[in-house]
Structures are given as C-alpha cells and as structure tokens.
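Suppose you are handed a protein chain with no further information: no name, no annotation, nothing but its sequence. What can you learn? This example shows the usual starting point.
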Amino acid sequence: MAKNQSPKKQQSPKPLQTVVVLEYHHRFGTDVSVYTDVEAAKLGIASIMAESIEEVEDPVDRERLREAVEAGNMVKAGEMWSELCDENFEYSSCEVLDADTLRKELKRES
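A reasonable first move is to predict its three-dimensional structure. Written in structure tokens, the prediction is:
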C-alpha cells in the first residue's frame, strides 16, 4: 500500500437468516413454502396431510397415517404418504438476507 493510501474499508457481512424451504411434489405440480425452522416445516407437512388425508382410500391406511402424524413421527408419515398418495415432501435449509436488510437493499437499488 502506498504511503498516503488509506486501507480499503471492509464491508461488514450482511445479516443472514436461515430458512427452511419445503417442496411438496404432488400430481398437479409442486408447491413451495418457506419456514423459519425445520420444526415449523414439519408442522406445515402435517397440515398439508391433515387437509388431504381423505384422499387415502383405505380406511386402515388412513388411520395409520393419521396416527403417525398425530404422534409427530413425520419420517414415517412422509414415507406412508409417498407410498399411498404417490406424492412427496422435500426440505432444505438456506440462508437469505433478513427482512430489514432486504428492504434497505431494495430501497437503495430503486
């Protein structure tokens, strides 16, 4: 660095927020939802299953699925759902700008 040059000001890292992206693959396409954590995503899956559980034709299978959901055993419920309904759920975590930072960035760019 030259004698009279000041060091480059380092930009502080932007605040990030971890979110969980849930994909629900069904016969009509794919629905995508975003949740604040894995537990919230699991509740989202349980809610979708509860809304559509009547699509499971066999009453014994429907009751087994309902019991798995109510017990919070979402791995078992997800496997059953995939087998019975030919639909599945996938989720992954990613980092995004937190809402306040995103608003400021968008305002600055416009």
